[in-house]
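Reviewer comment 2.1 asked that we show a complete input and output for one of the modelled complexes. We chose the 5-hydroxymethyl-3,4-dihydroxypiperidine case, as it is the one discussed in the main text.
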Amino acid sequence: MSWIISEAGRQLEKTIDFGNKFLIGNGYFGYRGTMEEYGKEELPACNLSGIYDQQGTAWREPINAPNGLYTQLFVEDEPHDLRTGEIVAHSQQLDMLRAIHQRKTVFSGRAGKVTIESDRFASSTDNHLLHMIYSFSLEKTARVRLVTGIDGDVWDINGPHLFDYSYYSESRTIAVTAVSGELGHKIAVADTISLSFEGEVRIFETEKGLFRQIEFIAQAGKSYHFTKAVAVYTSQDVEIPLEQAIKASFSANKTGYKLAKSKHVEEWKERWTMSDVLIEGDEKAQLALRYSIYQLLILAPQHGQTTSIPARGLSGQTYKGAVFWDTEMFMLPFFLHTDPETAKNLIKYRIQTLDGARAKAAEYGFRGAFYAWESQENGQDACSDYNVTDVFTNRPMRTYFRDKQIHISSAVAYGIWQTYVMTDDRSLLLNGGAEVILECARFYSSYAYYQAEKKRFELVDVIGPDEYHERVYNNAYTNKMAAYTIDIAVKALEALRDVPDYREALIRKLDYQEDMEQLAAMNAELYVPEPNDETGLIEQFDGYFKLEDATVEAVRSRLIDPKEYWGGAYGVAADTQVLKQADVVLLLTLFKEEYTEEVKRKNWQYYEPRTEHGSSLSPCIYALLACDIGDPEWAYPYFMKTASVDLTGESKQFAGTIYIGGTHPAANGGAWMAAVLGFAGLEIREGKITVTPQLPEKWQKMSFKIQVKEDVYQVEVTKEGGNIWKQ
Ligand code: IFM
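Response of the prediction step:
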């Protein structure tokens, strides 16, 4: 109950959607929910985390490994293929409790009804492994030809990325290696199978793949199956990935599918014990929230990985597989409250990529750390100056995401500080966290502009979270976050006082003495727009209220092409008050204790009808603030929108002509935040855990666990109040 996501019927028009919806993964790779017989036109992908390639001048993107699950069944030479076969029934489902993808298709053909079933999972105990059991039965006795192997002709947006294919086969194991074009990464995929039947086996290779063909006469009514253990390694993991992949797939096969599966399921049960959020009274919300949590769990970098989570998860190559502020501001809270070790891994990625952020700051003539808007493996910015393509001219449009979305550095500093405060783990500061915070603060002090006549520092020429308005002055969110960064830099230096040697060495290493004085000045004089005394409104940026006050619908009606970009120089929203996503409302959510309820309510009511929610990051923030001001019924539709974004597939698919589809882990994290921090009203301040429930009408009860430092707490919340106890 409420653990199964399923779809019935062929629905070929939804192939891409279902690839996202039925994704499995384990932090190291994501494997899309496509059928075993699919080729690259249907976008199957074993999308690898943290390994990228560039072809020519096209965008750098993550590498999709050769597809080790490729399997096609021929009966009397007739392919049994969901795309072309005659179908009696078809279903696809995701068992979220066990993180297993299942498929069942009944074909009708020369051998009567032919049933194919498969189960697959991305191992949670060894994240290099992908397991599958594939079974079939025929109504009539017939000659069967099963082709199964490793298909290296993979789907790429800006590929091909893999070259120099080479093949290996020995007994029941086959392997394919290939080399990436830009950096020469070696990618190895090995697969070992066990058959429940005997047949004539022939190994054959294609230009980019290695397969076995197994032929035999299948008896009517008898069930046949094989299991497959696929191992994926790259030269980022080990020196000789081929050797390691063969060894891993061989030994996984020896362990056996059954045992591998039971260990995997055990591990997932553990995860759910800690991460599940129970909602009584609303099945639909329960399913959607669980699905959101499932999505976050399949992306969590585990087993010592120090990669982070890309904006489209591991569902493919959209958004260049890059890491955005989505991670720190939208996903991190879930991990911080349920799995602090993973939260620390995410933070480590930012610490490791500090040099990339320094290089970017220097590139623009600033000091400190300006983190990449679209960060790849070394912190280099994958965001191009021309990040959107105009639908009319097909020409790249100059956008300023890369150079002006300076709030990214504050998100990194915020994430580190939140993790430090929540875990009380000083090693995080000592092992690079403090250095990152200081460098981010230094960036803002270097970016800020002192307005002598106003006697204040300002941040001019920026883009706030609302990307439709470029190059604005004093975006309230950005200024507030920069002020926060400076404040925590001062606090981090304070926190290091009892390790004076380390503190001194850090200040010396960064040559930070003068910066400390500058930070003190900025702390006092950085301008942060305040609520207007009469209206209570915070202006999103200087001059925002003077823009045309059009409705979202009016602005939408001005589109000539539905895929047209709303922002940039000529976008329909650019000279209106219509905003893409939560901006001031995000500020008020993050710093809710600093503003009165009246101010929060007035701003929510003002900005809500003007927000297009063109980013999946937006609705959860409206849900959170609505809960904070005691209006759960306002919050509920936004919560549902957030929690079901990858279930309904109803999200923006294009920015200009650029395809931006895939899963939405920030929205998934937002769903958790809206439920736990919003409806349950969970707060942890100075070690004190409280709840202030604002449950939607239908919800009778919520229960969940959280971890604070070493302790796990059970939280139960009803409309009347809550109970929290240590486990
Ligand atoms: O980070 C977001 C941004 O805020 C809006 N556009 C999409 C990005 C990736 O999710």
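The mean pLDDT is 96. We note this here for comparison with the apo prediction described in Section 3.2.
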